[in-house]
Structure formats: structure tokens, C-alpha cells
Design the sequence.
């Protein structure tokens, strides 16, 4: 009986909805809410009687005498129902919001119907992609899709190989999604692949296609239906759409080596952000295209000259489109001035790549993709917390703000060795606070003959000793006076895992300081590194000088770093070397990535997006890093330098500064001079790359 009651509308009362307030009713097939004239008269009568001084019971008596009916069409009024009646001259906020939404939806439906009656009908098999898109697709504001002149030239280009040098915000996603949908719906049993360097870049194209399906029921009906009655829109492990005409669209991220491209064979390929594909991914991608197929590549350039993307833009066999950002009709002088200030002028790499769509100055990848991908792993303990200024806007004092931050962070006391890095920037910029846990793995010592260093066996730490390998304790218990004295290589490997990422937007610097105080109380980090630019200066000053933070004893653990400054590095001979701070930080990260010390979560692809798109250029011998998409990287930079400064001696006098694998030679019972000679002669044997 319960299910039948829910399905039949006449069980829900006269208005068609139980919760509709008294004085209001549904019209036009339950699509809009309007005032009920008779019920509004009853409300007015009750208010008049109340104004004359009658009590609720006296008003009930008057209603009974005048045979005034309630919503159930009877005269069973009560004083409580009379009291509620007198407050219903307007809708409650909840129902007023619903009414506004339904009215707006009705106006949109009427407008769409009028436009559909006036607009010419475009067939699904229309060969011109421009006319097809104008007839079946829509902009995000609900209006019919209209293409800019440079987009029309690209859509109607019939070349087999097309490649783009584009700035940002010029309509690449609109063109790519139009071509993919047009091909799939006008080709019988066609196969197409939409590829991108990273999963995040692929999601923007998928969102555009899903929006078109939701906006146009005709397109949605073209998607094939499976045996279970659901549309064949597969999402895992990779998105895949199958259509009624047998066509299939595949969506694959390239990754580092292009593993997802292998075993695919298609007739069309559309590539987004092709400049960021690795060379291994390019080789795997090209073999996916069947003979006679067509490929289009869209991307903003990154300045790298040793890539397949750069070589294709210089090839005479490829048609090249160049779209600077000022081709967008909404381009203004104010936006141009803002971007010139942000990127540092027209000669900067950021302006040339992101705005002008030019290769510009030669740039290089700041981090090796292969090294970073080897440091990505599933981390069950990882959490990401997003805090915005709106969530803290109603906090009137510091106590309320601290309680709100504690609730949003949801932290408890943690044990272990932790490090914190933060990129605070300016209030309008996104800010990142990262917490890392440092963990040491089991030390393993491989026994070798000091006379024959070639017998050295190096094994990754953390596993059980194999045959011919002994532990450090057992080695120390052996007879050290035998003829062939035993030596050892101690391979100690530590891991620095990202366990918490706090992403903040529009948060004031006192609240940032409170957040760092909460993190310090929960993790007791051994070192905290912060960017000394923007909010960073104020935050560091508050944490080090205000009395409320003195119990945390930040002095000696909290460091503020000026990215444009210079850091002195102690050398083995007692002297100091000067190196630019940001370059030093980046070299520390690269060394940790090569040694697989840093570990990042696989589920947070924003981190990979930043590390794999960070580039640098050389200007008069000075390294200039790309700006914008680097807040997580800057937080990691601060953490690494804070960790390095916490050490008493940065570099051991027997160990070269940061080899790819941190292997240290030790002897037991030998003279120091002989040990140094042996190390000097054979140290290159220990520089082992995996």
C-alpha cells in the first residue's frame, strides 16, 4: 500500500504536494506555484478578526459559524491551526526558493521551445561540423553553440594531420568535443580516441560531452543501451562511450609510458595538451592510428625543443594553427595588462607559452616524469582538506575561528617524525600546507671483500637478506682479524610520505597562523618551512612573536624562506657556498625523487599535474621557473629545505653531496686514512642508478 500511495498523486492532497503551505496551489500540470484565491481570502479574514482583538478560540468560532473550510475541505479548525494560518501570507524561505527555481526552469523551457520552433532543423548526419554543432550543441549559458572565426577554420579543416600552438581560453575544448561527437554520430562503426597527458585534462573534455548529453535529449538517445537497460557510458577503468550506430569513443590518459594506448586501434585521434606527452607515450599513441586515419593535436607550447610535439609543429606534413589568447572576443586591455604583470612582460616564457601560443624561450622540465611516477603510490593514510574563507566568515573571534578550523581538519595526536611545508602566497591565491611523515626502513649491510670491490652486492633496503648478505649486527660479530678483512656498504633508505594536504582559498593570515598552530599541536613536526612571500611574512612573524604561540616553541623549528634569495651551504672544507634558494630547493626535491624518498598519493592527480608541467628557462645564466600552477611544489620546496636545515652537518665529509642513491661506505677496525683512499678510488662504483 505504501508504494501505491507514493505513485498516485490524488493521495497527496488537493495541491498535489503535502508540504505546500496553506494559501498556495499548483497550476499548469504541477509546474508552477501560485496563490489560491479562496485560501488567501480565509487568511485575510483571520487577520482582520485578529486585528479586532479576537483570541484564537474566538476566531475558530467565527470560522465555524461562517463555514470556512480548511485544506482538507472540512471545518475542523483548531486554535493552533488558526495561529499557523495567520503566518502564511508569504511562502517559507524553503518553498520560495523552490518556486523561484521552478519558475526559472519553466521560462527556460518555454524559451527553448520557441527557439526550436524558429530554428531550422539540422540532421544528425549533417557533414559540416560547424552547422552540426550549431544545430545540436549549446554553450554553458544555455544558448545555441556559436563558433568564433578561428574555430570555424579549424573545424572545417580536412587535413589528415593538424597540430595547434594555442594560448589559453581560445576554445580548444569546444572544438575537440565538437569534432569527436560529430565523427561518432555521423560515422557507422567509427572508432576514435581522445587522449591527454593527464587525467585532469581529460576530465574537462568529458564534462563538456556530458553537458551536451544532458542539454540535448536527442544526443543522449544516440548512446547505445546495454542488456541491463543502462546507457553504454563506461567510466572504469577508462571512460568509453558506445553509440547506436556502432561507433565508439575511447578516453585515455597517457601517463608516463602510454600504457593505456597499447592494444587500441582507431581511425581518429584527438590529443589535448600534447606538449606534455612523454616520448614513450607518443610512440605508443602513433601505433594506435590505423592506416588512413587522422590525428589532431591541441596544446599550449612549453618551450621544450627536444620533444615530438615541437618536431611536429615544424613539420611540413602537418597543418599548424596558431591561436593566441587575444583571438577570444572577450579579450580586453585590462586583461592584457593583468597577464603582462603576472607573467613578467612579453619576453617572459609564461607570456609566450600561455598567452601568445609560441614556443618562445627554450625551457626544460624541472622534474623528470619517470622519477616522479616511480614515487607515486596508493597511500591509505593520505587526506586532503579544503578550507575556504566562506567557511570561516561567520567566526566573530579567534576562539570561534580556532574551533572551526579544528572541526574542519579533524586531527588527533600523531606519533612519529613529521615535516610541514607551506606555500602561503597572497590572500587571493590558493594556499597549500603539506604534512609529511618520515619513515626509516630496515638497514641492510652487504658483506664484500675489501680487496675485491667488484664483489659488492647492492640490494634495495626493506626486504629480507638474500643468500650472501648479512645484517649489520651479524657483520660486527664476525672475526675482524681474518686475512680478507670484511667491509660493508650500509644502504639506509628513508621515505617521506605525504599524509595531509590542506588547500586554502581566501583565508586571512591570522587564520592561517591558527591552522599551522593546530597542525603543530597534532603532529609536533621536527621542522616547518614557509614561503616568505605575501602572507608568509606576516604568518611567520605572528608564530614567532605573539605570546599565544610561545608555548609551541616555534623558534628553531619554523623557517621562512625567500625564494628570490640566496642560501649558504656549508662545505666539507669548512667554507660556505652560495646558491639561489629556489634552485637549491628544487635540487633537493630532484635528489629525493631519484632516490625514491618522496612518496606522493596516486589518488591526488593535481599533485602530478603540477610536477609534470613545471618547467624552467635560463635567462643570463639564471634559472627562471614557470609560474602559476606550482603551489604544491613550492610547499614541498619549503619542507625539503626546512628538513635539510634541521641537520647539524648538511654533507658528510666522506659522502659526495646527494648522490642518486644515498650509499655510505663504512669499515670496522681499519685506519681512517686507508678508508678514505679506498673511498676515493672506488666511490663511483656506489653511484648506482636503478
Sequence:
Amino acid at each position: 500500500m505504501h508504494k501505491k500511495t507514493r505513485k498516485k498523486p490524488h493521495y497527496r492532497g488537493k495541491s498535489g504536494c503535502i508540504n505546500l503551505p496553506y494559501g498556495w496551489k499548483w497550476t499548469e500540470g504541477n509546474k508552477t506555484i501560485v496563490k489560491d484565491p479562496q485560501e488567501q481570502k480565509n487568511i485575510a479574514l483571520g487577520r482582520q478578526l485578529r486585528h479586532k482583538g479576537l483570541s484564537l478560540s474566538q476566531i475558530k468560532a467565527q470560522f465555524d459559524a461562517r463555514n470556512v473550510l480548511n485544506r482538507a475541505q472540512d471545518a475542523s479548525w483548531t486554535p493552533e491551526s488558526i495561529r499557523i494560518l495567520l503566518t502564511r501570507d508569504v511562502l517559507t524561505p524553503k518553498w520560495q526558493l523552490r518556486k523561484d527555481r521552478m519558475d526559472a526552469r519553466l521560462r527556460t523551457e518555454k524559451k527553448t521551445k520557441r527557439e526550436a520552433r524558429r530554428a531550422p532543423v539540422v540532421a544528425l548526419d549533417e557533414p559540416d561540423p560547424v552547422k552540426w554543432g550549431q544545430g545540436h550543441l549549446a554553450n554553458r549559458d544555455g544558448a545555441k553553440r556559436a563558433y568564433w572565426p578561428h574555430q570555424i577554420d579549424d573545424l572545417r579543416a580536412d587535413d589528415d594531420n593538424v597540430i595547434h600552438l594555442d594560448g589559453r581560453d581560445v576554445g580548444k575544448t569546444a572544438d575537440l568535443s565538437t569534432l569527436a561527437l560529430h565523427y561518432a554520430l555521423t560515422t557507422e562503426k567509427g572508432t576514435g580516441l581522445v587522449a591527454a597527458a593527464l587525467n585532469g585534462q581529460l576530465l574537462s573534455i568529458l564534462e563538456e560531452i556530458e553537458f551536451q548529453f544532458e542539454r540535448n535529449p536527442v544526443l543522449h538517445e544516440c548512446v547505445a543501451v546495454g542488456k541491463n537497460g543502462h546507457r553504454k557510458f563506461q567510466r572504469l577503468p577508462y571512460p568509453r562511450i558506445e553509440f547506436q550506430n556502432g561507433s565508439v569513443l575511447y578516453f585515455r590518459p597517457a601517463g608516463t609510458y602510454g600504457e593505456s594506448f597499447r592494444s587500441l586501434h582507431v581511425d581518429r585521434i584527438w590529443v589535448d595538451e600534447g606538449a606534455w606527452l612523454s616520448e614513450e607515450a607518443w610512440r605508443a599513441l602513433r601505433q594506435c592510428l590505423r592506416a588512413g586515419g587522422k590525428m589532431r593535436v591541441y596544446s599550449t607550447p612549453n618551450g621544450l625543443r627536444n620533444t615530438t610535439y615541437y618536431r611536429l609543429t615544424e613539420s611540413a606534413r602537418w597543418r599548424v594553427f596558431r591561436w593566441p589568447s587575444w583571438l577570444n572576443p572577450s579579450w580586453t586591455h585590462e586583461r592584457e595588462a593583468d597577464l603582462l604583470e603576472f607573467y613578467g612582460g612579453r619576453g617572459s616564457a609564461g607570456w609566450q607559452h600561455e598567452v601568445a601560443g609560441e614556443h618562445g624561450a627554450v625551457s626544460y622540465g624541472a622534474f623528470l616524469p619517470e622519477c616522479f611516477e616511480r614515487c607515486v603510490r596508493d597511500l591509505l593514510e593520505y587526506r586532503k582538506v579544503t578550507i575556504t574563507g566562506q567557511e570561516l566568515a561567520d567566526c566573530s573571534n579567534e576562539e570561534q575561528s580556532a574551533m572551526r578550523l579544528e572541526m574542519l581538519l579533524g586531527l588527533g595526536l600523531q606519533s612519529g617524525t613529521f615535516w610541514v611545508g607551506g606555500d602561503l602566497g597572497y590572500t587571493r591565491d590558493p594556499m597549500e600546507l603539506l604534512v609529511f611523515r618520515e619513515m626509516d626502513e630496515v638497514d641492510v649491510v652487504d658483506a664484500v671483500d675489501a680487496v675485491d670491490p667488484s664483489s659488492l652486492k647492492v640490494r634495495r633496503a626493506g626486504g629480507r637478506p638474500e643468500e650472501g648478505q648479512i645484517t649489520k649486527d651479524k657483520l660486527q660479530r664476525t672475526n675482524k682479524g681474518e686475512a680478507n678483512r670484511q667491509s660493508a656498504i650500509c644502504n639506509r633508505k628513508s621515505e617521506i610520505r605525504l599524509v595531509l594536504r590542506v588547500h586554502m582559498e581566501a583565508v586571512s593570515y591570522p587564520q592561517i597562523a591558527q591552522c599551522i598552530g593546530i597542525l603543530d599541536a597534532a603532529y609536533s613536526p621536527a621542522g616547518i618551512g614557509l614561503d616568505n612571500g605575501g602572507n608568509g611574512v606576516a604568518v611567520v612573524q605572528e608564530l614567532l612573536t605573539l605570546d599565544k604561540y610561545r608555548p609551541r616553541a616555534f623558534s628553531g623549528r619554523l623557517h621562512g624562506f625567500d625564494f628570490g634569495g640566496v642560501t649558504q651551504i656549508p662545505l666539507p672544507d669548512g667554507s660556505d657556498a652560495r646558491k639561489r634558494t629556489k634552485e637549491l630547493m628544487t635540487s633537493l626535491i630532484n635528489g629525493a625523487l631519484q632516490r625514491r624518498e618522496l612518496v606522493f598519493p596516486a589518488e591526488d592527480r593535481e599533485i602530478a599535474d603540477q610536477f609534470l608541467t613545471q618547467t624552467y628557462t635560463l635567462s643570463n645564466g639564471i634559472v627562471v621557473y614557470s609560474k602559476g600552477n606550482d603551489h604544491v611544489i613550492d610547499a614541498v620546496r619549503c619542507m625539503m629545505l626546512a628538513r635539510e636545515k634541521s641537520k647539524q652537518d648538511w654533507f658528510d665529509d666522506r659522502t659526495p653531496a646527494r648522490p642518486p642513491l644515498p650509499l655510505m661506505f663504512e669499515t670496522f677496525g681499519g685506519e681512517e686514512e686507508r678508508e678514505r683512499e679506498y673511498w676515493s678510488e672506488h666511490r663511483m662504483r656506489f653511484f648506482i642508478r636503478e
About this structure: The longest helix spans residues 93-118.
